[in-house]
Automatic annotation (TrEMBL):
Composition bias, Basic and acidic residues: 79-94
One Pfam family cited in the UniProt record for this chain: Inositol_P
Pathway annotation from the record: Polyol metabolism; myo-inositol biosynthesis; myo-inositol from D-glucose 6-phosphate: step 2/2
GO biological process: phosphatidylinositol phosphate biosynthetic process
GO cellular component, as recorded: Golgi apparatus; membrane
Residues the record lists as binding Mg(2+): E125, D164, L166, D167, D293
Membrane topology: Single-pass membrane protein
Designated name of the protein: inositol-phosphate phosphatase
Native source species: Labrus bergylta
Molecular function per GO: 3'-nucleotidase activity; inositol monophosphate phosphatase activity; metal ion binding
Length: 351
């Protein structure tokens, strides 16, 4: 008997071919899918890598922004073109003026930082819709290059920048210009990391990158028995009696304008500025205060081994809302805990 042959109908051949193509497609698509997934993972990693911010570059931009804003502040004051208005009153009843110097400085400082690092959060004391196309010069000051290495990075999501375009506006309107500063602070994960305090009328700029370096240093000696305590001249509340209760009636209380100036009074200033800057041992504030007023000073003090806390000794979070309700104690070169232990119980929210 002759062997039987296997015959496939045209339909069977077509089905067989389709099955084969399906198997091949399935296998091939699986390979492609796995390779695409790997590519996406690699691409995502590369994107994350590219989206970090070099903190030395950011420090240089902050210095440039503070100086640029300071030029606006100085020009408006010298031309006596303040165009003063009122933003209202503080909880203590003190006037909060707004001048053209505040706004012009804000426009330069805010836009320079935002144009250079568009992904980071920038909070400023002032607000308007004027867009300035100002860009970073790409210059890094020589003293920063000398003290700070590049390559220290942070993600944009972890960064919050606080700008005070004109600290001590009240004193600015009174032409008490030694108190006036422009300030920039960078907080990383809520902790002060970069601090810049610029004095427009002397041209001096203090800066620090916590853990890396600063152009400032603490003075050689301080005292807390009793200390010289610097306080706000326009938002003082009952601070004098509070301080005398803590350290005694012989305590020297120095009223001054501007939180930036008060922090500088705790540090060793250049010879050219030392004569015009008060020297204090501790800075205390017992009422509410905004974070753009204090963040830069906190970074400077932290970089030098000092501290800035609430009256209860709590760290201040610089990643959230602008208002610090816990009061303020700032020091360097002294035992911060010993200062806190002397302070009477006080709740700024009740005063």
């Amino acid at each position: 008997m002759a062997p039987m042959g296997i015959r496939l109908s045209p339909l069977g051949v077509a089905v067989f071919c389709l099955l084969g193509v399906g198997v091949i497609y399935h296998l091939y698509s699986g390979v492609i899918s796995s390779r695409l997934a790997a590519f996406r993972a690699d691409s995502s990693f590369l994107v994350r890598q590219k989206r970090t911010v070099d903190l030395r570059d950011l420090l240089a931009v902050c210095v440039e922004a503070a100086v640029l804003g300071g030029k606006e502040v100085k020009t408006v004051r010298e031309e006596n073109n303040l165009n003063e208005k009122s933003k209202g009153e503080t909880r203590e009843g003190a006037s909060e003026p707004l001048t053209l110097g505040d706004l012009q400085s804000h426009r330069k400082m805010f836009n320079l930082i935002k144009n250079t690092f568009p992904e980071i959060t920038v909070n400023s004391e002032e607000h308007d819709n004027v867009v300035d196309k100002v860009t970073w010069s790409r210059d890094i000051p020589a003293d920063i290059l000398d003290k700070i290495e590049g390559g220290k990075e942070a993600t944009p999501e972890s960064i919050t920048v606080w700008i005070d375009p004109l600290d001590a506006t009240q004193e600015y309107t009174e032409n008490l210009v030694k108190f006036v500063t422009t300030m920039v602070c960078v907080a990383v994960d809520g902790k002060p990391k970069i601090g810049v305090i610029h004095q427009p009328f002397s041209g001096f700029t203090a800066w620090a990158l916590v853990g890396e370096g600063s152009n400032m240093r603490a003075r050689s000696s301080y005292s807390i028995s009793p200390p010289k305590v610097i306080v706000s001249r326009s938002h003082s509340g009952k601070v004098k009696s509070y301080i005398q209760d803590a350290f005694g009636n012989s305590t020297t209380v120095i009223p001054a304008g501007g939180a930036g100036y008060k922090v500088l009074s705790l540090l060793e200033m250049p010879v050219s500025d030392a004569a015009s800057t008060d020297q204090a041992d501790v800075y205390i504030h017992i009422t509410f205060i905004k974070k753009w007023d204090i963040c830069a000073g906190a970074a400077l003090l932290n970089a030098l081994g000092g501290s800035m806390t609430t009256l209860k000794g709590e760290d201040i979070d610089y990643s959230d809302t602008p208002l610090n309700k816990g009061g303020l104690v700032a020091s360097v070169g002294v035992d911060h805990k010993a200062v806190l232990e002397r302070l009477p119980n006080w709740d700024p929210e009740k005063h």
